[in-house]
Amino acid sequence: MKTIIYFVSEDWYFCSHRLPIARKAFAEGFKVVVVTRVSNHGDIIKSEGFELASIEINRGSMNLFSELRTISTLYSYYKQYKPDIVHHVAIKPVIYGTLVARLIGSIKIVNAMAGLGFIFISNKKRVRALRSLFINCLGFYLIIRMGN
What we know:
This protein is of the alpha/beta class. The protein has a single domain, classed as Rossmann fold. Helices cover 55% and strands 20% of the residues. The chain is built from six helices and five strands. Helix 4 (91-104) links the parallel strand 4 and strand 5 (108-112). It is globular, with a radius of gyration of 15 Å. The mean pLDDT is 88.
């Protein structure tokens, strides 16, 4: 059985925006795993027959140790579930998920930006520096992807 992982920052966002396509994948015979921060919609996700893998991801955090812990947890999930396809939604899932999938290799990657959020609306000096780093990361990912 093929496995698809949806890595989405928030469980409510998965339910409101990705549930129909996950249902379709499930109906087509995929094992569906949802990696997300679980707040109020975990039971809905599990009631669909999907596996739920909780991850601590803070959309506005810039704490290096917290971010490395998130990446490490994600790496563990990707190794555990051995997905054929990963579908990342939002900025951090796209960056972290693509990095982890590339490290593991042989995983098909689908990236979806669900808005540009905090990093593009803040004028704080630290955030502006991160914005430049983010834009360079996206460019790097695009170059790698186009080269394959």
